[in-house]
Structures are given as structure tokens and as C-alpha cells.
Design brief:
The structure holds two protein chains of two kinds.
Chain A: H1 3-22, H2 26-46, H3 50-74, H4 90-113, H5 123-136, H6 141-149, H7 151-171, H8 186-208, H9 217-235, H10 237-243, H11 246-269, H12 296-326
Chain B: H1 2-22, H2 26-48, H3 67-98
Helix pairs in contact in B: 1-2, 2-3
The chains are: A mainly alpha, B mainly alpha.
Chain lengths: 327, 111
């Protein structure tokens, strides 16, 4: 482990975060913030967390930034307010919050200071590392944790995604999708057409090999959503919607949820409990092969459908009003 | 070693809180929330690191790092992205009704 490299990265994270807060121009602040996200993904990779690094790079610095830019362009006609209130005294506006945050930071750091130092694996984690192959047949321990040991959590998480998609759709309903914009130039469109199969292949490999290598349903589904967003940017806003209607996205998302629950119910039917993997009639297969680890590939597909369809629905729900206002 | 990670995580969290408390633009509030979230993620992952540990992919050579915080962090990232999308939807809706993204001017929300 290269400590000095890590120290430089931490310093850069702190500086870019500070710059993102201090910049008056929101667009620059968003770009700086996505740079912070990329740096954090690098730090996660250095800290031996490949799954987290992949998720951070795809979702936090890719998808969230694109959502930031859409929301910003939606509201670009509204004048943005000055940074701080001019009527209130400045000590109330800046100094008191700064004092509160510094004291909180010092207290948090004092508490965390005692946690630093030599640390050994907790019993549960040592069990996961030692027995995952035997108990689930998977090679990716984080994937096995998400889809086998703690699969119920993941079901709850997909419910949160569903709630967020519903919330965004309800809040932004009533917008009309108009075929506005013809996309970028011919060369970019051809280039995108050449690239799309490879991006889809990348997404599929992340998705289907989630039980063997870092990755899984969340990351693969997010790359699928990225393809939808790229289509929108390159071919104009109407293109992707004319190919895949929002109804079919809803169907895909609901299909993912139903697949997840059905796999869970199969465990109950077998008398082994909700979402149980190997005790239910799922075969562990040969470790390291594509069809192994019991129900994990199925659950990865379910999560991938849910996340991919959900995130691209969120993006298209946000695009809609933009076009209404442009008319 | 991991104390640097803790320090950066605490800094990000407090910087995010400061942004939420002081800035008037609703977008800056969301940036603050994202920074607070990043702080928590960084704290979990740097806590999970064990010197000399390999990534939690089998077969392991020697010991591995703690996989449990990684799973929790992964969940937190996806849920955080959904939260932020919902926050943007709220901002866009409020902007349409109030013609402003200034949180001080959203007076109809006051009880």
C-alpha cells in the first residue's frame, strides 16, 4: 500500500470538495464534485474495495453528475440566488454554522481516533471470508453478502429505488415529450452506433459475472442506464423513447422485482426460508463457472433490470419538462 | 494509516453540513448532502481496510479486508443516488411554482 499516494489523494478530495462548495458558478461546482467522486473511486480501489470503487465510479460520478446537469439545465432561466443572505448579520450566516461544524468535526474525530490503529477482522466478516465459497459457491464475497447472506436488505434497497422512481415520476408528471433536438453530428452518431454493442457487452459482463468478479446487478444495470442517457445525448431526445417506450421500462422494472421475489418464494416453497440460496434447490455448480453460486446470477439479473430501467426512467422523467419549457 | 481516511471523512461530512446550513441555492444544499454522503462512504471503506489484506475476491492470498462494510457502502451509494434524484425532482417542481431556487424564499413550506 502506497501511503504517500493515498495521502495525496485524500488531500485532493478535501481540496476539490472545498472548491465545489466555494465556487459561485454551479456548473463548475458540479464538474468539480464529479472529480471528487472519481478521486474517491480511486481511493476505494486502493483500499481494496473493487466493488465499491466500480459502483462509485459508475453511479456517483457518472449517473449522478448527468442528473445534476439535467436539473441544472432545467432551471437555468431562473436567476441563482447570492451565496449568503444579505439582510442577516454575517456572524449568524457564516460564523455560527462554521463554529458548530468545527466543534462537531473535532468531536467526531476524537471518537474515531480511538478506532484507528491495529484492527483485526470481526467474527462475522472472518466467517464470510472463510466460508463464502462453501456456503454460496460464489467467488465475489461482497456479491455473496448482497445477494445471499443479506439478500433481504437488497430487496429492501430495490424497494427504495422503486419508491424513488415513483416519486420522481409523480413529481414530474404532466410534462410532454416532444421530439426536440436532432442530436449531434453524423460522425458522432456513427461512432456511438459502433460503440453501443461494446458498452452493452461491458454492462452484460459486469452483470452476469457479478458472482465471480467485482460488479453485479447494481453496476451492470447502471451501465445499461448510461447507454440510454448516451442515446439521448447523441441521437436527440426522442430517439430512445421511440425505441423503448416508458411502458416497457415499467414492465422491465416490475419484472425485475417479481423475479427477485419469486426466487425468494421458491426458497419458502422448498422449506428453506425466504431468499435462501443453496439450502433451496439451487445448485452451487463448479466454482468459477458462469452458472454457479445457485440463485445469485438470477438475483443479479433481477437487480440489474430494476436498476437499469429505474435509473433511465428517472433520467427521462427529468428530461420531459425541459422540452415542455423549451416550447 | 487509516487515520488519514477518518480525517478526510470527517472533513467531508462537516463541510457538507456547513454547506447545507449556510448556502441559499437549493443546488448547493444538494451538493452539501452529497458531500455528507461521501464522508460516510469514505469512513466505512477506510474502516474496512486491514493492512496487508487483499480485496475480498476468492481465492484469497493471506487475509482479506473486511467485506461487510463494502456491502453496506454499495447499498448506500445506490440509495444515495436515488435520494439525490428525488431531491432534484423536488427542486425542479419548486422552481416551476416559485420561480426560484432560493431556499430562503420557499415560504409556503413554513408551517
Amino acid at each position: 500500500m502506497n501511503v504517500s499516494l493515498l495521502a495525496v489523494l485524500y488531500l485532493f478530495i478535501a481540496v476539490t470538495a472545498l472548491v465545489a462548495v466555494l465556487l459561485e458558478d454551479l456548473l463548475s461546482a458540479f464538474i468539480t464534485l464529479s472529480f471528487t467522486g472519481v478521486l474517491m473511486a480511486t481511493v476505494f480501489a486502493l483500499l481494496r474495495a473493487p466493488d465499491v470503487a466500480l459502483t462509485q465510479a459508475i453511479i456517483n460520478s457518472g449517473l449522478v453528475t448527468s442528473l445534476l446537469l439535467v436539473a441544472y439545465s432545467q432551471t437555468r432561466k431562473t436567476p441563482h440566488p447570492p451565496e449568503v443572505c444579505d439582510e442577516c448579520p454575517s456572524w449568524l450566516q457564516v460564523k455560527v454554522p462554521a463554529f458548530v461544524c468545527s466543534v462537531l468535526g473535532l468531536l467526531l474525530f476524537r471518537g474515531l481516533y480511538s478506532l484507528a490503529g491495529e484492527r483485526s477482522l470481526p467474527e462475522a466478516s472472518a466467517h464470510y471470508l472463510a466460508r463464502t465459497l462453501e456456503e454460496t459457491g460464489a467467488l465475489n464475497v461482497v456479491g455473496a453478502l448482497l445477494l445471499d447472506y443479506r439478500a433481504f436488505d437488497t430487496l429492501g434497497e430495490t424497494t427504495v429505488i422503486f419508491a424513488a422512481v415513483s416519486g420522481v415520476s409523480i413529481l414530474l408528471s404532466g410534462g410532454k415529450r416532444v421530439h426536440s433536438g436532432h442530436g449531434l453530428s453524423y460522425i458522432v452518431k456513427r461512432g456511438m452506433a459502433l460503440l453501443t454493442p461494446f458498452i452493452l457487452l461491458y454492462a452484460a459482463s459486469i452483470l452476469f459475472l457479478g458472482h465471480l468478479t467485482p460488479g453485479g446487478g447494481f453496476q451492470g444495470g447502471s451501465v445499461f442506464a448510461t447507454v440510454a442517457i448516451l442515446m439521448c445525448v447523441v441521437y436527440g431526445t426522442g430517439f430512445e423513447a421511440s425505441r423503448i417506450s416508458s411502458k416497457s421500462k415499467e414492465t422491465l422494472e416490475a419484472g425485475g422485482a417479481i423475479l427477485f421475489v419469486l426466487v425468494g418464494l421458491l426458497g419458502i416453497a422448498w422449506g428453506a426460508g425466504f431468499l435462501s440460496n443453496l439450502p433451496a434447490p439451487f445448485s452451487a455448480g463448479t466454482p468459477g463457472s458462469l452458472l454457479s453460486a445457485g440463485s445469485m446470477p438470477l438475483l443479479n439479473i433481477a437487480v440489474g433490470l430494476k436498476v437499469g430501467a429505474g435509473l433511465s426512467s428517472i433520467f427521462y422523467a427529468m428530461i420531459k419538462i425541459l422540452e415542455l419549457e423549451d416550447e | 494509516m487509516s487515520i488519514m481516511g477518518f480525517a478526510t471523512a470527517v472533513f467531508l461530512f462537516c463541510l457538507g453540513l456547513f454547506t447545507v446550513l449556510t448556502r441559499r441555492s437549493a443546488f448547493k444544499t444538494v451538493i452539501g448532502l452529497m458531500l455528507m454522503e461521501s464522508g460516510v462512504l469514505l469512513l466505512l471503506v477506510s474502516w474496512a481496510y486491514i493492512p496487508g489484506g487483499g480485496p475480498p475476491i476468492l481465492p484469497l492470498q493471506g487475509t482479506g479486508v473486511d467485506p461487510l462494510p463494502h456491502a453496506l457502502t454499495l447499498t448506500a451509494i445506490v440509495i444515495g443516488a436515488c435520494d439525490i434524484a428525488l431531491a432534484f425532482a423536488f427542486i425542479m417542481k419548486l422552481e416551476r411554482f416559485e420561480k426560484s431556487v432560493d431556499v430562503d424564499r420557499f415560504r409556503r413550506l413554513r408551517g
